[in-house]
Design goal:
Length: 325
């Protein structure tokens, strides 16, 4: 079984083998750009890691479908950044800011198409099953993004609403990546489904941690401006939990801060963080991450995998959740 570090190396080398060039260059250069600026590569690593639980023969029949997960993820990032009008992605200028919105939209579309081209290079006997789960997942990611945008017009949402949204927008693609590797390796359906749930719960923990880092992280390590979600009045896990815990006076104060269009960005962020801290939201967010991390590991414990296989999954979860804390 490969170490997680070795899997990281295989993924990075695999990225270099991708044929992302084409004409017109304005269409394809942004694709190379978004892939080249790095990232955690969680999804292809997840696919290779779950595949490697059952097989040590890593070739293009698993590598290219795994990289399809990263290409599709890149497509969603380009389009998400347009919708959020985000200036930075991984500490670099976003595609729509470096080029323009029209180019960014078309480049994202091509990335979506290319993800299908790469996933189709799986072993033929698994193609129908993989296309079914990937197509369902792709639609769910778009549904999650639309729900997220719908939330912008809602004064309040519940934590259940929020978990449902991030389950679609973030967790299902990580879960699909986990199941993809297991399917190509020939794992039985029950084990593949358990690994899907492992990836799903881990995806929820990952997104809540992402929300946490947006408020309490470091720009250099996080790769995005801190407080961006606050400035955009986004309904993150922290904001939803704050509204749940707030009394009438807290809600009035928070509402006034969020509606103040004249406030300096640093002042607005500072005031919202003060409310988070007052209501214990920072600690509550950390506890939520721990809980979904626990649920991910529980999905592993309930399988018939060997102890070595389970430890590999536990280690991967730990590396994902304990980032930049």
């Amino acid at each position: 079984m490969f170490t997680l570090q070795e899997i990281d190396s295989i993924v990075e080398k695999g990225i270099l083998t991708l044929n992302l060039k084409g004409e017109p260059s304005e269409l394809y250069d942004p694709i190379e750009y978004i892939i080249s600026i790095g990232g955690k590569r969680i999804r292809p690593k997840m696919s290779l890691m779950t595949y490697n639980l059952f097989s040590d023969k890593i070739d293009n029949s698993i590598l290219f479908p795994a990289l399809a997960m990263e290409i599709f993820h890149g497509f969603t990032l380009i389009h998400d950044d347009i919708m959020d009008d985000a200036p930075l992605r991984r500490s670099q200028i976003t595609v729509h800011k470096r080029w323009n919105n029209n180019i960014a939209i078309l480049s994202g579309d091509v990335m979506c198409i290319k993800s299908y081209q790469y996933i189709s290079q799986c072993p033929p006997q698994h193609l129908k099953k993989l296309l079914a789960i990937f197509s369902r997942t792709a639609a769910q990611v778009c549904e999650g993004q639309q729900i997220d945008m719908n939330f912008e017009a809602s004064p309040y949402i519940t934590l259940d609403d929020y978990i449902g949204m991030i389950g679609l927008k973030t967790a299902v693609l990580i879960a699909c990546s986990a199941k993809l590797g297991a399917i190509i390796a020939g794992a039985d359906d029950k084990t593949a489904d358990s690994l899907y749930n492992y990836g799903y719960q881990l995806g929820l923990a990952f997104q809540i941690m992402d929300d946490y880092l947006d408020s309490y992280g470091n720009t250099q390590t996080f790769g995005k401006a801190i407080g961006g979600d606050i400035l955009c009045n986004k309904k993150t896990w922290l904001m939803v939990e704050t509204i749940k815990r707030a009394d009438m006076n807290d809600k009035k104060e928070l509402d006034a801060i969020l509606k103040d269009a004249t406030a300096e960005p640093k002042v607005k962020i500072s005031k919202v963080l003060a409310i988070y801290n007052k209501l214990g939201v920072k600690e509550a967010t950390e506890e939520a991450v721990i809980e979904y991390h626990r649920k991910a590991n529980l999905s592993v414990m309930e399988t018939n995998l060997t102890e070595q296989q389970k430890q590999q999954l536990f280690s991967f979860a730990d590396s994902l959740i304990n980032r930049n804390k």
